[in-house]
Amino acid sequence: MRILHTSDWHLGRTLHGESLHEHQVRFHDWLVDLVAEREVDAVVIPGDVYDRAVPDVASVELLGRTLSRLARITTVILTPGNHDSAARLGFGRDLLRSGVHLLTDLPGIEHPVVLEDEHGEVLVFGLPYLEPDMVRHALTPEGEETLGRSHAAVLQAAMDRVRERIAQHARHAQRPRAIVLAHAFVAGGSASDSERDLSVGGIGSVPGSVFCGIDYLALGHLHGGQDLSALVGAPAWYSGSPLAFSFSEKDHRKSVLLLDIGAPSAGGPAEMTVERISTPVPRPLTELRGTLEEVLAEAPAHGQDWLKAIITDAARPPHLQERLHQVFPHLLLTEFDPQGRGERDLAPLVRREADPLAVMDEFFDFVTGAPPTPLEHEILDDAYSAVRAGRQEAS
C-alpha cells in the first residue's frame, strides 16, 4: 500500500507580511498531480491545515477544492492540529464523500479508517490535537485518578485506546498494520521559530515511547522534515511543512513523504520504505550579514531571494531600506547590528534633570551608533523649538 504523508500546510499564513496564498495553490496543484502520478492509495495529513482557528475565505475555498480533487483519485485522512479549530474543520464530515475522512473528535480516536490491500487491513487512527485541560477528564479510565495536565499523559491514554482496538482486530484475524496520525512535539525533535508552543496548559513534549506498538507514526507540528524512528521504536516521521514560514527554516529541505507499506510482520512493524520528495519552493530564504556595501555586493547571487539583511556598519547608513529594496525586491527583514559597538547601556536615557535637547542627542546616538552632526543637531533643535512654541500658543 502506498501512503503519502504531508502536514502543516498553514493555509492563510504569511511570511513576514508576504502573502503565501499563490504558492500554497501551486503546492496543492503539484500535490494532486503527484498523487495521481504515483498512484497513491491514501493521503494522511496530521494537522495544522489552517494557520488559525477562523481561516480566511480564500484558504477555506482552497482546502475545499483540493479535498474534492484528491477524493476523486485517492482516500484522504485528516486530523486537526493546534492551529486548527477541530469543530470548524470537522463541520459537515458526515456529509462528505467516502474518499475524505475528517477525524476531528475525541470519540473518533477509537474508530480507525480501514484500508485494505493484498496483505490485509491497514488501520489508520487519527489523534486530533489534544489540549490536556480540555480532554484529560474524558480520557481518564473509569475508576482511576484524573490524568495529569500534560500532553504525555493524554496521548498515552489515547494510544492505550488505539492499542486496545488493534488487539481487538488481531483476535479475529491476523494482526492488522496500524498507522497513527498525531500532532505533537516528540521529545528529541528539532523545532524552528515558526511553531506555536504546545506547553500552555501542561507540559508540551511527549516521549517517543508513548507511540509504541504501531507500524508507522505520521507526525505533524514541527516544520522540519525529520526521522524520529529511533526515538519511537517504529517508523516515525515529521513530514514538515511544504513551505518555510520563518528564516529559521532557511536550511530545511521541504518535502512530503511517500510510504510503501508491505506485508505485516509478526515480530515488529511491517516492511516499509520511506521516500522524501521535495516540494516546489517559490524562492530561497537567504540571510546576509555585513556592511551595507558588502550586502549589496551579493545582489547578483541573491537578488531574487527572500532576504533577511543584517547590517553591521558602525553608523546606520542613510536611506538603508530604500537602497536595499533597489537591488533586493523580495527583502523581508532588515536588522541593524553595528559591529564593534559591544553591549550598550540600556538604562533609561531620560533623566529628570537633563536638558531635553541633550536627551534627543543621546537617543540619536543610541539608535544610529553615532552622535548627530552639527546639521542634524540643528534640525533637532528647530523641531524642539517648534514644539515649545506650539505649546506656548496653546496655553
TrEMBL record:
Keywords, alphabetical: DNA recombination, DNA replication, Endonuclease, Exonuclease, Hydrolase, Nuclease
Gene Ontology molecular-function annotations: exonuclease activity
SUPFAM superfamilies hit by this protein: Metallo-dependent phosphatases
Function: SbcCD cleaves DNA hairpin structures. These structures can inhibit DNA replication and are intermediates in certain DNA recombination reactions. The complex acts as a 3'->5' double strand exonuclease that can open hairpins. It also has a 5' single-strand endonuclease activity.
Complexes and interactors: Heterodimer of SbcC and SbcD.
Protein family per UniProt: Belongs to the SbcD family.
Name under which the protein is recorded: Nuclease SbcCD subunit D
Species annotation: Brachybacterium equifaecis
